[in-house]
Amino acid sequence: MLAYIVRRLLYALPILIGVNLITFALFFVVNTPDDMARMQLGVKRVTPEAIAKWKAERGYDKPLFINGSAAGVGVLTDTIFFDKSARMFAGDFGRAEDGRDIAREIRTRMGPSLAIALPTFVLGLLVTVSFALLLTFFRASYLDFWGVVLCVAMMSISGLFYIIGGQYLISKIWKLVPISGYGGGLDAWKFLILPMAIGVISGIGSSARWYRTIFIEEISRDYVRTARAKGLSEVTVLFRHVLRNAMIPILTGVVVVIPLLFMGSLLTESFFGIPGLGSYTIDAINAQDFAVVRAMVFIGSVLYIVGLILTDISYTFVDPRIRFN
Prior knowledge:
The protein folds into 2 domains: 2-90, no CATH class; 110-318, Orthogonal Bundle (MetI-like fold). Helix content is 73%, strand content 0%. It has 16 helices and no strands. The longest helix has 36 residues, at 102-137. The protein is globular.
């Protein structure tokens, strides 16, 4: 197992380097350092001298990838790519265009993002799996039919509808919770309960329908017929056999959510005014702050790779036949 984890970590290194290179290249294809300077300084009445000064102060006056005028390793290290991207592998995210330390902002904003994402993830998983098991138990019945219809209807509705509709109904009409904002301490639940509820409800349609498909496929296998022949009840068959054998595809789907647990939801945090990493990323995109966008893409890549490794390890707990050498 240890050798497998080490190999996976070594495989992840070129992937992270590739993601870094692609992100860096794409950003500077769209926005050159001169464009960034004009946006920060203001398009009107900006002078070439002001642009040159802005670039020099922030390290954008160097070549992008290769510095032909430098000697030795400076050919690669005395470049914008090394200063702005390569140092992230050592945990140095640098500073945003407004001068604030990115690592400090990430540590500060991680708490609100986790406060929303973790409960939403856990409750959503419990609700969707339970609903899918209920539909499977009553398969080929009217409850199953209308449950699938409900899932298709819910997954066909945009997430923005749930957010705006929830804010209008719960906050504006019923005035049960604040419409937006965030407060620390014990009062935080008032600002978090509506985003959490909307996150759970908006994910029921697609997730429950997918889990139901997995359970229906499992329940037709030979081992289920054998369990029934031994006299086990349908509930026991579902929870002790079908659910356990369906854990591998469920765990695989969970991997996609892991980066969001730390990086937050872009739409939810923006609409509800939550000072988390999701809103931080949106603000950086609007301001064309490459330093912050680059850092968030890098962190998301690292979390996704870590999630894949953890998922592979978790396979060994739900299926003893799986072994990694």
